[in-house]
């Protein structure tokens, strides 16, 4: 690449990513290297993380050695502290790996809001919305710059769900970085096209997650549209790593309308529905409030209702009004 009459091995998006890291409080050199590797080779990274690639153990040892050589700067979070989300409900942050890499479940309407923002956004202190110790800011620069990329989780599976290009990278420096470094697996799309992808995935019964990662400048950077059979985060969550936060909503069933057909059970990605005495029943603990089941009920017996004990919703329009 030629810049100012000289040839440079460093792409402009890498420089911008580095500059953004320098401006981010508590973002260490290790974080930047971690973020660079993650964004530069996401398919290898997630393939290793999901255990699909044989080099997973070797990578883990390398990562541990690197973290000792380049330790993370202390952000002041030494011990997890409870997060008060309502007058009588608190959430205890996990204090685990999930605090730096996690998703917030968002129903279709909330996901559409995230891909149709027309202004730069900087919202911090979102503990009630994103109940994790790190990676909980929404900073959207050039939010109309959106990429559709091949889903790294699906790409790592032997028989993935299709289509592949349903992961959305939102705003810069992330969209510019991935577009410049991996044009073969990414394509620039409009906000309307992003909405179409969200709606198509919702129709397929797949869940929308807004993803946050410490190495990605500690902020929101992508919307994942995936399923329990392919998604590494959903699988980890099912096996006890709390990588996903509830939408803040809960499925509610009108027993007078429900005929106990079990159709909604088939679509629930979190195993939160089952039929008892010819009526569907919601498992309060398992339900993440994604809303996928609601659209699948031909009887109109299901709806989403706010549940304070599940946290605050990620609704960017309301957050902007409050900010």
Radius of gyration: 20 Å
**Tell me about the biggest sheet?**
8 strands, mixed
Q: Which H/E pattern describes the elements?
A: EEHHHHEEEHEEHEHEHEEHEEHEEHEH
**Strand fraction:** 15-25%
Task: Quickly count the domains.
Answer: 2
Mean pLDDT: 87
Helix and strand layout, with pairings?
Layout: E1 2-3, E2 6-7, H1 12-22, H2 29-40, H3 42-49, H4 56-69, E3 83-86, E4 89-91, E5 101-105, H5 108-114, E6 121-123, E7 138-149, H6 152-156, E8 167-172, H7 174-181, E9 186-189, H8 191-203, E10 207-213, E11 219-226, H9 232-238, E12 244-245, E13 249-253, H10 263-267, E14 273-276, E15 279-282, H11 292-296, E16 302-306, H12 316-322
Helix pairs in contact: 1-7
Overview of this structure, please?
The chain folds into 2 domains: 2-245, no CATH class; 249-306, 2-Layer Sandwich (Alpha-Beta Plaits). Residues 55-59 and 73-80 have low confidence and may be disordered. By secondary structure, the protein is α+β, with helices and mostly antiparallel strands. Strands 5, 6, 7, 8, 9, 10, 11 and 12 form an 8-stranded mixed sheet that branches. Strands 1-2 form a two-stranded antiparallel ribbon. The protein contains 12 helices and 16 strands. Helix 1 (12-22) packs antiparallel against helix 7.
Quick overview of this protein structure:
The protein is of the alpha+beta class. The protein is built from twelve helices and 16 strands.
């Amino acid at each position: 690449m030629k810049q100012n009459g000289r040839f440079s091995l460093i792409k402009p998006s890498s420089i911008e990513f580095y500059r953004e890291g320098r401006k981010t409080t508590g973002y260490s050199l290790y974080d930047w290297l971690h973020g660079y590797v993650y964004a530069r080779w996401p398919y290898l990274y997630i393939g290793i993380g999901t255990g699909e690639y044989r080099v997973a153990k070797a990578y883990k040892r390398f990562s541990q050695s690197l973290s000792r050589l380049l330790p993370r700067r202390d952000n002041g979070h030494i011990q997890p502290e409870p997060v008060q989300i309502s007058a009588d409900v608190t959430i205890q942050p996990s204090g685990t790996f999930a605090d730096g890499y996690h998703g917030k479940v968002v129903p279709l309407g909330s996901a559409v809001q995230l891909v149709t923002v027309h202004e730069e956004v900087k919202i911090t202190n979102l503990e009630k919305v994103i109940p994790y110790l790190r990676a909980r800011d929404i900073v959207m620069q050039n939010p109309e710059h959106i990429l559709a990329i091949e889903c790294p989780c699906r790409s790592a599976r032997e028989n993935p769900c299709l289509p592949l290009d349903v992961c959305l990278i939102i705003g810069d420096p992330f969209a510019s970085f991935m577009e410049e470094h991996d044009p073969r697996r990414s394509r620039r799309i409009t906000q309307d096209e992003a909405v179409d992808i969200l709606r198509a995935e919702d129709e397929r019964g797949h869940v929308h997650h807004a993803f946050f990662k410490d190495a990605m400048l500690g902020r929101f950077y992508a919307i994942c549209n995936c399923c329990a059979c392919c998604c590494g985060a959903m699988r980890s969550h099912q096996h006890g790593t709390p990588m996903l936060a509830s939408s803040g909503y809960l499925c509610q069933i009108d027993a007078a309308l429900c005929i106990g057909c079990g159709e909604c059970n088939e679509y629930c990605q979190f195993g939160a529905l089952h039929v008892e005495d010819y009526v569907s029943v919601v498992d309060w603990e398992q339900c993440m409030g994604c809303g996928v089941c609601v659209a699948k009920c031909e009887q109109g017996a299901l709806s989403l209702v706010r549940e304070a004990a599940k946290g605050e919703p990620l609704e960017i329009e309301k957050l902007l009004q409050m900010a």
